[in-house]
Amino acid sequence: MSEPDPGFETLLEFVRDARGFDYTGYRRPTLMRRFEKRIQAVGADGWDGYRAFLEEHPDEFNELFNAILINVTGFFRDRETWDVVASHVIPTVLEQKDEQASIRVWSASCASGEEPYTVLILLAEAMGEEALKKRVKIYATDIDEAALGQARDALYTAKQLEGVDASLREKYFQPANGVGFGFRKDLRRCVIFGRNDLHRDSPISRVDLLVSRNTLMYFSPDVQERILANFYFALNRGGFLVVGKAEALQSGRRLFKAHDLKRRIFVRDGAAEPAFMHIARLPRPAEEKHQPDLEQLRDAAFEHAPIAAVVIDGENNVVGINQPARALFGLKLKDVGRPLQDLDISYRPIELRSLIDEVRERRRLVHSKDIRWQPAGGDERSLEVQVSPLVSLGEGVVGISVAFIDVTAHRALEDHLDSARRELETAYEELQSTVEELETTNEELQSTNEELETTNEELQSTNEELETMNEELQSTNEELETMNDELRERTEETIQANGFLASVLAGVQQAVIVVDRDLSVLAWNALATELWGLRDDEVEGQHLPNLDTGFPFSELRDPIRMVLVGAEPEEMALIGHNRRGQAVSYRVSFAPLRGDLDDSVGGAILLVTADRH
User: Fold this and answer.
1) 124 CB contacts (<8 Å, ≥6 apart)?
2) pLDDT band for position 612 (50/70/90)?
3) Dihedral (C-alpha) 205, 209, 212, 213: value to the nearest 10 degrees?
4) How far apart are CA 118 and CA 124, in angstroms?
5) Buried-state track 456-480, b at ≥16 Cβ within 10 A, e below 16
6) Three-state SS string across 446-515, please?
7) Which of these ranges, 95-109, 162-176, 205-219, has the smallest mean pLDDT?
8) Is the model's pLDDT at 200 over the cut of 70?
9) Which of 58, 271, 492, 604 pairs with 433 at a CA distance of 20 to 30 A?
10) Confidence tier at 520 by pLDDT (50, 70, 90)
11) Using one digit for the tens of pLDDT, what is the confidence trace for 423-450?
């Protein structure tokens, strides 16, 4: 196992202290991938850089928690599992309960609420809505407050309800103001939502069905074991536990037994509860009748016993050595009667004298294990030595029995079994790790697929908006073309009108000058150009009294102002010069210039007639 990254552990402690979310029990590979995804998103530099970013941008905590807690869920997700829950689990729960007894369900890590509402639908179908309202309480918990808020609202889109059969969707969901579908409020009261951290908070108790799917795989093995112990405590005897399809529940096999292993449905195992140990006492045998060959029978039994045994009297003299003991330790029949301390067996393979003294003092059996002994020219053996007091009624300890039990084969089997068990545990751990990583990868792929589907929908929506904008632009373009056509017609009309006006001005045998209310020149005909030498494009827009042509235009201010106020000034006679400097007598008459839409005066028209001297 790789050593933990100190920088990452420090970051986890900061998140725990800052917001109270303790992720130290989560599996490190999965957790680090979630953090690295957010680090890449915000462009932070490593664990320390991301911690500094969190301190400066508190809103990032919400994005981080959403990345860690992938709320991948759905109604009737993994349909086969829910089919078994509906056909076997719920009927069994109802059979185990009295007709009026309450039914308690715990949906752990409920995310946005699809799973607890799925269980509610199945219970309603199994027992009827009236009984459901009276007897059922579903406790739905999660660590994500935002997800709990969505679950409490119980509003879902049509896409989220794709897993619900049409008949059930129509029966249990109602349209919600055009924003989706809401779960029925009268049944929603059966579900109680609350925050619960599985490896830190106390579990819900006395539940008949516990659903916790694809949650355990995010925790380390020791945290998983603690959570499973809480689940065991939470469930009633015979209660059902439903976990995710990739959660093998290896660490909980001593607490739960499989009901449907393929669908990951387990039952709380009552055999795991502590039980009383009863010691049975054998009845005292009746007093034996004297038989002439009894002593010979006992000697034969001792001699041919399968266990090597040596008997010692109260003076530590050897009074009996059976055949297995003689073969094992190389003893002879002539050694019977000798003091124990004179024999090698007194200290090899174990020091017997201290054990014999202890047995005599305490009057109880002494057992010594794992004794290694290698006979001359033979293989090493494993022995267990059992030293027992031989008690005679009324006389106390009269002798000692030393039994040497050969457990070589048993020890070899134990060693082989331990080795196999370790290999099996290692294989189980690797398999569990592989399954959890595979499930995590599947979850991430599913989440990525859902994100891609969402992106596709957004792109489709954007495409539709672009098509709408294109249609609007096309409509606008058509309007502009229509306006362009109208403008072209107006321009042609204007050109025609200007041509007509120019033709009229050219046909008038007087110099024609048109000014606006500011006395700026609006029109100037060809005869005026002939008189004073200025073209129409040179004078248009110029202030009439300021023109230097040899004509006293300044004297026309007052008559023009009279025209502008609606008066009719008389014709004026003036003396001036033409463009050749010749003296000319001029007669000037005045007329108002009226607008098209109303009768207001917008300027004045001057008609000038020239008479040479």
Assistant:
1) 132, 172, 187
2) low
3) 180
4) 10
5) eeeeeeeeeeeeeeeeeeeeeeeee
6) HHHHHHHHHHHHHHHHHHHHHHHHHHHHHHHHHHHHHHHHHHHHHHHHHHHHHHHHHHHHHHCCCEEEEE
7) 205-219
8) yes
9) 271
10) very high
11) 888 888 889 888 888 988 898 898 889 8
pLDDT of residue 222: 75
As assigned by CATH, the class of the 508-612 domain is alpha beta
β pairing state of 155-156 and 136-142: unpaired
Instruction: State the chain's mean pLDDT as an integer.
Output: 83
Question: Residue 405 pairs with which residues in a beta bridge?
Answer: 384
Secondary structure (DSSP) of 146-206: HHHHHHHHTEE-TTTTTTS-HHHHHHHEEE-TTS-EEE-HHHHTTEEEEE--TTTSPPP-S
| Euclidean distance between CA atoms 552 and 584, whole angstroms | 11
Q: Return the minimum-mean-pLDDT range out of 407-411, 438-442, 455-459.
A: 407-411
Among 3.30.499.10, 3.20.19.10, 3.40.980.10, 3.40.50.150, what is the CATH number of 79-271? 3.40.50.150
DSSP H/E element including 34: helix 28-42
**Spatial strand order in the sheet of 318-321:** 318-321, 308-313, 396-406, 381-392, 366-373
Q: What values do phi and psi take at 546, rounded to 5?
A: -90, -5
Give the pLDDT score at 484. 92
| pLDDT greater than 60 at residue 169 | yes
6-68: in CATH 3.30.70: no
Sequence-distant (≥ 6) Cβ neighbours of residue 452 within 8 angstroms: none
pLDDT band at 21 (very low <50, low <70, confident <90, very high): low
pLDDT at 82: 93
Which residue bears the tokens 């320390």? 48
Residues 6+ apart with CB under 8 A from 27: 217, 218, 219, 220, 436
Q: Is 345 exposed, middle or buried (0-12, 13-18, 19+ CB in 10 A)?
A: buried
Q: Please say whether the beta carbons of 46 and 39 come within 8 A.
A: yes
Q: Which residue has the tokens 């715990």?
A: 106
CB atoms within 10 A of CB 370: 9
Cβ-proximal residues to 401 (8 Å cutoff; 6+ apart), any chain: 309, 310, 311, 312, 387, 388, 389, 390
Kindly indicate whether the domain formed by 297-406 is annotated with CATH number 3.30.450.20: yes
Token couple for 308 = 């090597």
The Cα 515–Cα 560 span in angstroms is 9
Strand order in the sheet with 181-183: 155-156, 181-183, 173-175
Q: How many CB atoms lie within 10 A of CB 374?
A: 10
**CB–CB of 344/318 below 8 Å?**
no
Written as one letter, the residue type at 74 is: G
* pTM passes above 0.85: no
pLDDT (mean) for 224-234: 86
* 49-68 per-position pLDDT tens digit: 998 998 898 888 878 877 77
Report in angstroms the alpha-carbon separations of 251 from 10, 31, 224, 539. 29, 21, 8, 104
